[in-house]
Design brief:
Strand content: under 5%
Radius of gyration: 23 Å
Largest sheet: none
Distance between the termini: 46 Å
């Protein structure tokens, strides 16, 4: 994707370099995993918060706060990412990481709102070209019934 005209030998070199970088990162992270006080599952939940809360706050703000701009969303992602890593892994904060998630969520909403006040969203109105077809798709109801039945069957099969 980056250099589509690259030769096969160049691709192999880049692949080897990428593998080396990932191996070094894995070696550096291994002691953190081995020394996780609450176990691997709890560590994975903490690591999940690095990306989940900033992305979730941007999505929720996008749905319920229409004046949030793209610049505000990007600032919220950056602040949330930095705040969580700082408070969870670098500083000795005596708060459970789930409480940090709540604080981070509110902080992200505040940052997105304030940045969006300074850099407002550009409003683009789509004007439909011609009449809009509002007729219901003829397979909507049968397909929704099939999907519900399949979902119940999956739950029943996995729950046995």
């Amino acid at each position: 994707m980056i250099q589509s005209s690259a030769s096969d030998s160049k691709l192999v070199k880049v692949g080897k370099l990428t593998s080396l970088i990932l191996a070094v990162i894995s070696i550096l992270i291994a002691p953190m995993v081995a020394n996780a006080p609450d176990g691997l599952y709890q560590l994975m939940q903490q690591l999940n918060g690095i990306f989940f809360i900033p992305i979730a706050s941007v999505l929720i703000a996008g749905f319920f706060m229409p004046k949030i701009s793209a610049v505000g969303a990007k600032a919220g992602l950056a602040v949330g990412f930095s705040f969580y890593i700082l408070t969870t892994f670098l500083l000795e904060v005596d708060i459970h990481f789930i409480h940090i998630w709540g604080i981070e969520f509110l902080l992200n909403l505040g940052v997105m709102y304030l940045v969006s006040l300074k850099f407002p969203a550009k409003v683009v109105e789509a004007i439909p070209q011609g009449p809009i077809n509002l007729q219901e798709w003829k397979f909507a109801k049968p397909l929704s019934i099939v999907l519900c039945v399949v979902t119940v069957m999956i739950y029943w099969f996995l729950g046995r």
